[in-house]
């Protein structure tokens, strides 16, 4: 489904479809209009009824590809607000679809569904699937592994992280952040600070440790961020935006203006592109702030493609019409990585604007 259709399906599921009787929604799972069938599945997922599970299992054997694909979507998040009550019954069915369905689209849907279920029993099949010949299957399998990392599959995750396809590699990065977050979650504040002071610390571990420290003590994390900002080591200066991520969003210390001020200073003045790149990503979280938006727009001509890429990401997160002209410019960037991503985000923003106007 494209962005427009996904948005329409979401609106339907919370609007007109929210009050439809369950039998009618079950019938709509096979509707040829993908928006209707997806919206019906989404509405049923919230209800989490046994009858929807049974119908979903039945539809995994349907001759029609789009019906089987919608069945994987339904089953992957059915009862998500009640701890996925059908996980153990669903996982073997979805695993069989991942391994044997003739449609790559359905297999990709099955892999993604297993990820939503965190179906650890299917780990071996998902590990094989990250080497699949089909790109969508590989992406979905990498997504699925994010929440199921064990020490045994760390080599697989590291291989994903090093893949030349940046979008694919990102799933490996996120998986390692979660892994390190669980590994270091009970460390003392002193131990966490010691890790951040190690210039050789893995970037995924650095992100995880920064988040733990910020959650533990915002005021102390802010002190550390200000200190790391002045470091001569680029690796250690990276700690500043990572620690600042999550700060300044409430009335707690530090004030939002101070956090934004530090981040904007680093975005425009730090000599290391990796620091500017990470800082732009963090500024994406401060949506609706005109000063931040202006700062991102001013940073767009940066000579390093990574910073321009992150600016495109941040502008799309802010979702303001003022960012559209710059995204249009970035969509013609000489670096194809930036241009492709900017075009993708521009399409997404424009679809949101269209749907807002229609609704």
How would you characterize this protein structure?
With 359 residues, the chain is an all-alpha fold. It is globular. The chain folds into 2 domains: 3-133, Leucine-rich Repeat Variant, CATH 1.25.10; 234-358, Leucine-rich Repeat Variant (Alpha Horseshoe), CATH 1.25.10. It has helices at residues 3-14, 22-28, 34-47, 50-59, 65-76, 87-100, 104-117, 123-129, 135-145, 154-161, 166-184, 189-196, 203-216, 218-229, 234-237, 239-244, 256-269, 273-283, 290-299, 305-318, 324-330, 336-358.
Architecture blueprint of SSEs:
Blueprint: H1 3-14, H2 22-28, H3 34-47, H4 50-59, H5 65-76, H6 87-100, H7 104-117, H8 123-129, H9 135-145, H10 154-161, H11 166-184, H12 189-196, H13 203-216, H14 218-229, H15 234-237, H16 239-244, H17 256-269, H18 273-283, H19 290-299, H20 305-318, H21 324-330, H22 336-358
Q: Summarize this, please?
A:
The chain is mostly helical. It is built from 22 helices and no strands.
Give descriptors for this structure.
359 residues; mainly alpha; Leucine-rich Repeat Variant; globular
Helix/strand/pairing category:
mainly alpha
In CATH terms, the superfamily of the largest domain is: Leucine-rich Repeat Variant
Percent in helix: 55-70%
The best one-word shape is globular
CATH class wording of the largest domain: Mainly Alpha
Poorly predicted residue ranges: none
Number of strand elements: 0
Radius of gyration: 22 Å
């Amino acid at each position: 489904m494209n962005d427009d259709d996904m948005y329409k399906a979401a609106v339907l599921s919370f609007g007109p479809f929210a009050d439809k009787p369950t039998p009618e929604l079950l019938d709509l799972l096979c509707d040829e209009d993908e928006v209707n069938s997806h919206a019906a599945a989404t509405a049923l997922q919230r209800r989490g009824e046994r009858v929807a599970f049974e119908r979903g299992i039945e539809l995994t054997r349907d001759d029609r590809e789009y019906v089987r694909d919608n069945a994987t979507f339904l089953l992957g998040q059915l009862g998500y607000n009640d701890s996925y009550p059908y996980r153990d019954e669903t996982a073997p069915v979805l695993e069989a679809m991942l391994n044997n369905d003739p449609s790559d689209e359905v297999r990709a849907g099955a892999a993604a569904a297993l990820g939503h279920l965190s179906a650890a029993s299917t780990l071996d099949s998902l590990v094989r699937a990250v080497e699949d010949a089909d790109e969508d299957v590989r992406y979905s399998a990498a997504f699925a592994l994010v929440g199921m990392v064990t020490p045994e599959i760390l080599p697989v995750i590291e291989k994903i992280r090093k893949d030349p396809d940046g979008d694919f590699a990102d799933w490996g990065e996120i998986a390692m952040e979660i892994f390190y977050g669980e590994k270091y979650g009970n460390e003392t504040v002193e131990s966490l600070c010691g890790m951040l002071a190690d210039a050789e610390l893995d970037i995924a571990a650095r992100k995880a440790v920064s988040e733990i420290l910020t959650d533990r003590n915002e005021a102390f994390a802010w002190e550390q961020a200000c200190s790391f900002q002045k470091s001569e080591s680029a690796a250690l200066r990276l700690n500043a935006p990572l620690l600042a991520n999550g700060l300044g969003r409430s009335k707690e210390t530090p004030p939002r203006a101070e956090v934004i001020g530090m981040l904007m200073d680093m975005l425009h003045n730090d000599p290391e592109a990796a620091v500017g790149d990470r800082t732009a990503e963090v500024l994406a979280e401060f949506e609706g702030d005109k000063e931040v938006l202006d700062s991102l727009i001013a940073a767009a001509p940066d000579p390093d493609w990574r910073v321009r890429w992150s600016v495109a990401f941040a502008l799309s997160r802010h979702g303001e019409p003022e960012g559209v002209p710059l995204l249009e410019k970035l969509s013609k960037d000489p670096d194809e990585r930036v241009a492709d991503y900017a075009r993708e985000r521009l399409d997404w923003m424009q679809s949101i604007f269209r749907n807002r106007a229609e609704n």
